[in-house]
Amino acid sequence: MFGNRTHRGVVLDTSNDGFDRGAACYGSIFTLEDDPSKLYLYYTGAQDTKWSLASIGLAETYDGFNFRKISSYPLLEEHPKAFCHKEALSPAVVGLHSRFYMVFSGKPTTMAARRIGIAYADDPKGPWHIIGELKKPNEWWEGNAIDNGLSIVKLDDESILVYYSNVTSARAFDMRAMLRRYPIRRIGILKVRIHGTSPSGIEASEFSGNPLRHLNGPKGHWNESVFSPGYLKINSKNYLFPAASTYSVGFPYKQYIGMTAGDTPYFPKETSQIGRLIDGPSEKTQVVPNAKGEIALDTPFPHYDVKKRTLFLYYSVADRGDNIWKIALTTFNLAAAPKPRS
């Protein structure tokens, strides 16, 4: 189904100054129901390549290719007591109750574990108000830090699903991870019920089937680790687009973007088969024509343009030669695919 692709290259680059001069990546698209032609791109900006400070920015586009950044300043105001004071990244936005909610990852301090939180606004451009944390890493498979994926599944008027994954840092005293000597990243699902803008109005619970181990391949396989997936539904079919890596082969890691389809957004083992969409090692010069080293791939986000019958797959990419993260785009012509129901 996802054939006839074209690599479009980098569509969001770093700025010469401002909060995103070290990275402009981990971005998701959001559209208003009454104005679907205008696309909002919420993205992560870092002030340097060491990510000494990271926050969230906003860009706009009408064609999906050419983006205009709204400001050289971040959307979220820094607050010393916020869970995201040190880092705020991977924004995913949904509209509920005539408001807008942003799920994103954050760290309060340099040494703290990364966790997932939520903010709200009355307008897509903000101002955004931090509500608080949704989830800290607490399961063994989650290791020492977790990140959310960039897509949100809207179940009903107050319930959403958030995909998330562990990072490469293992939990202390995890002997299995220590003996393995390389990280395994897996995907989990978080269900969030929103019925207010205060911490007491937000309820988060983990999916009983976490982690989705069946999406991982064997050691050395392209999907040995899977993480930071994007989500899309066309007609009654659900699609998950995970980033993938073979950490066991050593640095520079071979990285990919895959896809799995299912009848539900929970992607059970019985009906989910995963395949590769983008092969980082063999397609690096198409994705980043002037790449000096291997490329890293992360945080895929699919956006379907119904009129153009085109899938826009945005994802973060870094040339290992300079380690500067940016957002790239690959498009897929779905002219032969059935038109989604309204």
Structure description:
- The chain is mainly beta and 342 residues long.
- It has one domain: Tachylectin-2, Chain A (5 Propeller).
- It is built from two helices and 20 strands.
- The protein has helices at residues 175-180, 280-287; strands spanning 5-12, 23-32, 35-46, 54-61, 68-69, 87-96, 99-107, 115-121, 129-135, 146-154, 159-166, 187-194, 202-206, 225-234, 237-246, 254-262, 273-279, 295-305, 310-319, 325-333.
- The strands form five sheets. It has a four-stranded antiparallel β-sheet.
- It is globular and about 45 Å long.
- The two termini are 20 Å apart.
The name of the CATH topology is: Tachylectin-2, Chain A
CATH top level assignment: Mainly Beta
Outline:
globular
Reading the helices and strands in chain order gives EEEEEEEEEEEHEEEEEEHEEE
Instruction: Please indicate the count of domains.
Output: 1
Describe this structure in a few short sentences:
The protein is mainly beta and 342 residues long.
Give me some keywords for this one.
342 residues; mainly beta; Tachylectin-2, Chain A; four-stranded antiparallel β-sheet; 49% strand; disordered C terminus
Lay out the secondary structure.
Elements lengths: L4 E8 L10 E10 L2 E12 L7 E8 L6 E2 L17 E10 L2 E9 L7 E7 L7 E7 L10 E9 L4 E8 L8 H6 L6 E8 L7 E5 L18 E10 L2 E10 L7 E9 L10 E7 H8 L7 E11 L4 E10 L5 E9 L9
Antiparallel strand pairs: 1-20, 2-3, 3-4, 4-5, 6-7, 7-8, 8-9, 10-11, 11-12, 12-13, 14-15, 15-16, 16-17, 18-19, 19-20
